[in-house]
Amino acid sequence: MNYFEFTEPYYALIKAKDDVDAVGKYIEVVAGNDSEVQTLLDESKIVPEYYAAARFAQAKDENGKLVDLEEVIKTFKSDETEILLMDGSLL
Asked: Has this prediction a pTM greater than 0.85?
């Protein structure tokens, strides 16, 4: 799996097998439409797994609690495309 960070128009950190899957998940869950695929591909950047894991492990839920370590491990072992983090203004 790879880890992709998007900063515009909204922040998201996405785990996906490739950039096309990451952009698809971004459009589906965060923002955008199919006409913006190329722009989102150009603006996304791949980040190291350790960076993604550290960012995800520091995330707090709606109650202000950190993500449980078991959840972090389970998420990073999974082969599914997932949103790890997204702009809080969208929640």
From this structure: yes
